[in-house]
Design brief:
This protein has 232 residues and is an alpha/beta fold. It has helices at residues 21-30, 43-52, 95-123, 143-163, 181-190, 202-214, and strands at residues 12-15, 35-40, 56-60, 77-80, 126-130, 169-175, 223-226. The chain has one domain: Rossmann fold (3-Layer(aba) Sandwich), CATH 3.40.50.720. Helix 3 (95-123) packs parallel to helix 4 (143-163).
């Protein structure tokens, strides 16, 4: 059983999409030193992660459709890891899909960040957006997802400059293809065989986030890209 630590004894981190994949790995990594608000859409999804951490609580919300839940007065780290994937050529993707993906990957991020800024300013905290290689370059069939990630990069670039005077740092982390349920579904949809040797371990992405968060406050990792060592 994990030994529990009282809330208030640690800096506070909120990780959206914290129930699985990259988000869960980040929650587990930050959970070594932080009190973690584990974000997810249902209490059932986040409960195992909360139980496994020494100091944690659920942060349950569907940020794409509902209001932002109450936030602490002080927030040291906000990690935006929740997101949805989408594939399809521009000629084939309808308006509803564009709105769905941009709503989750961009608008929900903006909503939560806006609500969290007072708490982040109070802590002189850091915002970490988990972006993608698709936020740096687009490929055929990836227009919707890439557009959302390019927009997320624009959001974080602007936020970084806006919040410098308030002491809030902002970082974009761009992982390459990472071993996850979402990635497995994507590869299956592409008709390819899945070989985990060619994908990042989510723990590798979490290690990058740890480096970004632990940098002394006088410096900011503005953007970092991490890709699998083995490339097909």
């Amino acid at each position: 059983m994990t030994e529990r630590i009282e809330p208030g004894a640690r800096p506070v981190a909120l990780v959206t999409g914290g129930s699985r994949g990259i988000g869960r790995a980040i929650a587990e990594e930050l959970g070594r030193t932080h009190h973690v608000l584990v974000g997810g859409r249902t209490a059932e999804a986040v409960a195992p992660v909360v139980a496994a951490l020494a100091s944690a609580e659920p942060f349950v919300a569907d940020l794409a459709t509902g209001p932002v839940p109450a936030l602490p007065e002080r927030l040291d780290v906000l990690v935006h890891s929740a997101g949805v994937d989408s594939s399809g050529r521009v000629a084939d993707v309808d308006r509803g899909e564009w709105e769905r993906v941009l709503g989750v990957n961009v608008v929900a991020v903006a909503d939560l960040t806006r609500a969290a800024l007072p708490a982040l300013r109070a802590a002189q905290g850091i915002v970490v957006a988990i972006n993608s290689g698709a936020g740096l370059r687009a490929a055929p069939g990836g227009s919707v997802y890439a557009a959302s990630k390019f927009a997320l990069r624009a959001l974080t670039d602007a936020l970084r400059e806006e919040e410098r005077g308030n002491g809030v740092r902002v970082a974009s982390v761009h992982p390459g293809r990472t071993d996850s349920d979402m990635q497995r579904a994507k590869v299956a949809g592409e008709g390819d065989d899945y070989d985990p040797r060619y994908y990042l371990d989510p723990a590798s992405v979490a290690a990058v986030v740890r480096t970004v968060v632990d940098l002394p406050p006088g410096g900011t990792v503005e953007s970092v890209s991490v890709r699998p060592t083995r490339i097909r």
